[in-house]
Fold this sequence. Notes:
The structure holds three protein chains of three kinds. Chain A is of the alpha+beta class. In chain A, 48% of the residues lie in helices and 14% in strands.
Amino acid sequence: MAEATFLDSNELVINMGPQHPSTHGVLRVILKLDGEKVMGTDCVIGYLHRGVEKIGENRTYTQFAPYVDRMDYIAAVSNGLGYCLAVEKLLNAEAPPRAQVTRVILTELNRIASHLIWLGTHALDIGAITPLFYTLREREEILNIFEEYCGARLTTHAFRIGGLQYNLYDKFTEDVTSFCDRFSPRVDEYEALLTNNRIWVSRLRDVGVLSAADCKQYGVTGPVLRAAGVKWDIRKALPYSGYENYDFEVPVGTNADTYDRYLVRMEEMRQSVRIIRQAVANIPDGPILGKVPKVLKPPVGEVYVSIEAPKGELGYYIVSDGSTQPYRLRVRPPSFINLQALDKMVRGNLIADCVAIIGTIDIVLGEVDR
Amino acid sequence: MKLWDKFLFTDLIQGLLTTFRQQNPKDVVTEQYPAQRPAIAERYRGAPRLNVDAETNETLCIGCNLCALACPENLIVVGTVRNAETKKKELTTFTYDTSRCMFCGLCEDACPVDALELTQDFELASYTREGAVWDRQTLEEGPKPTKYDF
Amino acid sequence: MDENQKPPSAPAEDRPAAKEAAPPAPPVSADASAAETAPKPAPKPAPKPAAKAPAVMEATPWEGEIPAAAREAFGEGILRAATYREQDFFETGPETLVPLLTLLRDAFDYDYLVEETAVDYPKDEKRFELVYIVYSFSGNHRIRLKTRVAENEEIASAVPVYAAANWMEREIYDMFGVRFRGHPDLRRILMPDEWQGHPLRKDYGIIQQDQRWVRENLGIESGQ
């Protein structure tokens, strides 16, 4: 929206956010309205900008690892995995098998946790209050596993470059298996609450349609892309951490609307449980930390490594000048790129749908602003 | 949605049944903190502690400064003097700024003698910024949060 | 936590590491990259292993259908096509970049702009290196494209080719001050509009900030 003046009396400009419960953080959306209809949007972001990339240039590779947890704090484990994989690629090192399986289990647990938060808050935005309590209850169990494993619940710092710092605790397999057993029926419960609910369906169906071609044009990835019918998941396309060894499906939608994105994410949670069950059944023995030097000095070079985070493609582009600190560390944040498509999705819809669409993109402002 | 479903409200009844199934008081998971103490994991990364030898009450810290070097936030300051007789470094002061700490555990990992440790204490609130900067004594004795009766 | 595999003595472990990374890594990277980008006959042979002083990226030349087609279309505009750590990349002249993106999108189905960012090498004449990463869903392959621009040089915007470039170019403008010709809405995105300076430049300190902005907008002397 380059034109700054809106003098036409039929048009109304309102601010949504930055302090608005439905913007999931400090997102400010300037909406240009014609009656109830949204004619255009302008996102104002950066309220949470902490200069993560600048911090990265001023810390050693090891020291920067805790900071990546603070971008997408809902899925801190995924962030950590992406960072560790990128530095390992730069070092030409690999984590030992036991570490890789552990990483898969924790990352998939984190994907479930992230989708649970998304489901609860998205339903709350639409007006369904009940699911939030149930999803937070289940997420609590996941966070307890994280706490037992690495000592932190949210910003976990669970992985280290080259493998893991903490070995699995004694009851880990038991805890994870019993969580999977309890969790599967609960997904059905959420579906019983929402999937056929007439209010839910009429609020979501055909709202915020973003076709596959538009998704590619805007670089949108993750569940939004899959709901548009593109069967693309980095875990399948460019496997990392041994994802090629697990049997799972990539759910896709057909209508590319908010309702399909809901269905895709629900199915993803089930598939994550499936991966976790396979992984827990075969945790190999052996070392947890690969052969990496204590002081990391990657050779001069640059790599781009990306993983399938719960929100989409999370990439790290690291340029090394051969010293202990990255010369340039760039994060490709899925939320930031996906949010860009908001204007396309909202335009022409009603203002009440704006909340549903912001919810369906599943943004975390810590990652948008970095 | 089929016509009879629309008039019999089957979708809504299905949801309500799910809600009512959760009403059993045994299923309540809410923790009544602070009356009820939370279960803290053994590996929890909370308040830092500087360990002392249980028998001699002497510090385990050898003043190697590795924790300060490992810390991403540069919040640890280790003060040492060299003992003229034994030619060994001895710890004099140790400051730890908990207000900037993000409890990543890198200092703990770096410590070669398990002197610095992140413990299960999690009540670190202080009325002043200065209160968040811990000296050697606080680190050895641990935080002393106010206890309330309920 | 004693069961964890903690290396017994940390300081002793440092030695082999230091030995592995042979050059003591002076801040030479800028010079190294300058040597790479300087105009020269396109495919550069792999750097001599004995090269001691400025360490360079040990990339191998990248041959194949796509580099051949790109060379045929742009000739001298393609400075280098190479592979590093199984990742293929092009180095091009600034005016070749957007046409090359268009070629990759239309002829080879690279329909997804993954990433666009910049790297600052303040010692070089052309200090900013712009990095584009494109991906092909059908070919399941990523290509990185790099080009160099000087401080006050404009470069054509990639927005007409990929809509995704919009915010990423705004972020590059915000953080580095690179201007894009033909961008629909080149404003700051993460920093406030009136902010002075570009934080991700190497000469911008990590705790440096726009004091005037902080004073005027927050009413305090310093934000720190």
